[in-house]
UniProtKB/TrEMBL annotation:
Residues 1-25 form the signal peptide. This is Cyclophilin-like fold protein. SUPFAM superfamilies: Cyclophilin-like (SSF50891). Gene3D superfamilies: 2.40.100.20. Residues 44-150 form the Cyclophilin-like domain.
Length: 154
């Protein structure tokens, strides 16, 4: 077998990269699976139980660490339900802004409060996505303030 082509530095480098590509792809796939662990939570109020999934982010993990938690949700401008959190969340690595969709669970970092969107809203600076509901959120839309318990799902 003639291996003189390996004596050219550029060809040798390309060859080494091509040979290592499957290993790199396999390694990054494994890392993604480990990082992709998401936390399932439940919002419990009255006879209603709504499930949600928190993102695998610093803020999502820090919020999960607070649970179980009891909060009073109030309406804010006919777009979202808000509640004060007992402490600030870790927002390391969070983008500067976020455009919420219906069912998004977010943190409004400047005020340190939870914001649950039942209608889509504009891109807002300081808004950090924590996760989203897994299904219908209609039971959340009530006019009067109400208490909700948040727990890690079994």
């Amino acid at each position: 077998m003639n291996v003189n082509w390996l004596k050219t530095p550029a060809l040798a480098l390309m060859s080494a990269l091509a040979l290592s590509a499957p290993v790199v792809a396999e390694t990054s796939g494994t890392a993604t699976q480990k990082e992709g662990t998401m936390t399932k939570i439940e919002f419990i109020f009255g006879e209603d139980r709504l499930s949600a999934t928190l993102d695998d982010t610093a803020a999502g993990r820090d919020f999960a660490a607070m649970l179980p938690l009891e909060l009073t949700l109030t309406d804010y401008h006919g777009v979202e339900k808000v509640a004060d959190l007992p402490r600030k969340l870790d927002t390391t690595g969070a983008p500067a802004s976020y455009k919420p969709e219906t069912g998004d669970i977010t943190l409004y970092a400047p005020w340190g409060n939870l914001a649950i969107f039942y209608k889509p809203f504009q891109n807002s600076r300081g808004l950090v996505r924590l996760g989203a509901f897994d299904g219908d959120i209609a039971p959340l839309v009530r006019s009067a303030p109400y208490t909700v318990r948040l727990e890690i799902a079994d």
